[in-house]
């Protein structure tokens, strides 16, 4: 594993940990502040707002290379985690959550810029596997520490501070290769389709991430037990992202992943007991795991799309999805029950596959799991196998 992949994996693992911890901490914060959890439920959305706010700044942040964004994101997340760990008034928690969002946005922007070459989807999958694995640890660490009754479980957030400070102090990501001045622009239709595919992939993922525990609790479990079993979704994602790289280029990964995710979603909808729901969440996690890396690699591989602009578009897509999709599922649950609201993920998956199919038949697709060699408009090729994402001039890839 190259140095830049290690830097990206450390950054995304820390981010995965604190984002999952933020949702878990809502219960503890509500007790500490004496307010209903509903009044703090918007805190996880600060990550999405941070992505939206920072996305346009991508070209500026990455102008001189990825180090500045990597260090800034590390300091922001370390500071946000510290504020949340020690917050004794709501204002501290609010500032901490916003810092997590800003730092997360910096990491989302810098990760594509740090990973370059033909192995975009494979590298992205490995990096996201680190994030998924760390996200599984967060609820257990917070719950276990809180169960001791000696200290507040939120102090488990401090576990990410030392590695982040070390990353900020020691990381020396490779400088981007000089790019010639270019006047041509990417095809708007191809860029829009691939951006939309990223939005849809992240939307499906966060529908499960935000509402999995609530679905389990609705089946009659206590909040603590529901939180523990809810980790099966990020655990499934970790498994999927570990198993995914060898499959890229060998099978139609997006189609298979969407089918597995849909199967898991249907189990979550129809299951009448917590055990079956937990299995459905695990299956859905395995399926959805590969969708974000593959769709993001497809966006990055858009012919003539500048690397920093691709990173900004990726952050914008993630922020849009994280804010909109869980809220849409919640609104649907007000009309039908939460169980049926999970059916929202099925049309999202269908729309994702439709966008990728249109991209393929139009002849400008260079997405990572394409099975046969196809010519792009710029003359580059997508070749069967793991090393299928070819970077355009001056382009760097992610994960």
UniProtKB/TrEMBL annotation:
The keyword Cell inner membrane does not apply. Residues 366-389 have a biased composition (Basic and acidic residues). The keyword Lipid metabolism does not apply. The chain crosses the membrane at residues 7-29, 41-62, 69-89, 95-115, 220-239, 251-271, 277-301, 313-332, 338-358. Gene3D superfamilies: MFS general substrate transporter like domains. InterPro entries: MFS_trans_sf. Keywords: Membrane, Transmembrane, Transmembrane helix. Residues 366-399 are annotated as: Disordered. It comes from the Bacteria. SUPFAM superfamilies: MFS general substrate transporter. This is Cyanate permease. It comes from Actinoplanes regularis. The lineage of its organism: Bacteria, Bacillati, Actinomycetota, Actinomycetes, Micromonosporales.
């Amino acid at each position: 594993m190259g140095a830049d992949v290690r830097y990206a994996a450390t950054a995304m693992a820390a981010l995965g940990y604190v984002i999952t911890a933020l949702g878990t901490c809502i219960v503890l914060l509500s007790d500490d502040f004496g307010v209903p959890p509903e009044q703090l439920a918007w805190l996880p959305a600060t990550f999405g707002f941070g992505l939206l706010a920072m996305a346009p700044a991508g070209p500026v942040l990455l102008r001189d290379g990825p180090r500045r964004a990597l260090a800034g994101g590390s300091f922001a997340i370390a500071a946000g985690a510290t504020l949340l760990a020690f917050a004794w008034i709501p204002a501290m928690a609010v500032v901490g959550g916003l810092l997590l969002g800003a730092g997360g946005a910096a990491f989302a922007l810098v990760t594509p810029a740090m990973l370059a070459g033909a192995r975009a989807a494979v590298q992205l999958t490995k990096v996201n596997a680190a994030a998924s694995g760390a996200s599984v640890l967060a609820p257990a660490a917070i719950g276990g520490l809180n169960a001791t009754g000696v200290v507040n479980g939120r102090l488990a957030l401090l576990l990410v501070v030392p590695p982040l400070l070390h990353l900020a102090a020691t990381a020396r990501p490779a400088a981007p290769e000089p790019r010639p001045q270019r006047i041509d622009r990417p095809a708007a239709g191809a860029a829009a389709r691939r951006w939309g595919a990223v939005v849809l992939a992240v939307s499906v993922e966060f529908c499960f991430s935000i509402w999995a525990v609530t679905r389990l609790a609705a089946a009659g479990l206590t909040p603590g037990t529901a939180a523990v079993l809810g980790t099966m979704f990020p655990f499934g994602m970790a498994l999927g992202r570990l198993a995914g790289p060898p499959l890229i280029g060998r099978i139609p990964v997006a189609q298979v992943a969407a089918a597995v995710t849909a199967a898991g979603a249907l189990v979550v909808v129809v299951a009448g007991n917590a055990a079956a729901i937990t299995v459905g969440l695990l299956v859905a996690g395995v399926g959805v795991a590969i969708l974000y890396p593959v769709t993001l690699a497809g966006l990055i591989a858009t012919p003539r799309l500048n690397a920093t602009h691709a990173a900004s578009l990726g952050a914008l897509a993630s922020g849009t999805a994280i804010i909109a999709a869980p809220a849409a599922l919640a609104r649907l649950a007000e009309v039908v029950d939460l169980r049926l609201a999970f059916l929202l993920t099925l049309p999202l998956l269908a729309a994702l596959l439709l966008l990728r199919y249109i991209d393929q038949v139009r002849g400008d697709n260079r997405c990572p799991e394409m099975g046969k060699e196809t010519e792009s408009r710029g003359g580059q090729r997508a070749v069967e196998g793991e090393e299928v994402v070819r970077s355009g001039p001056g382009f760097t890839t992610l994960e």
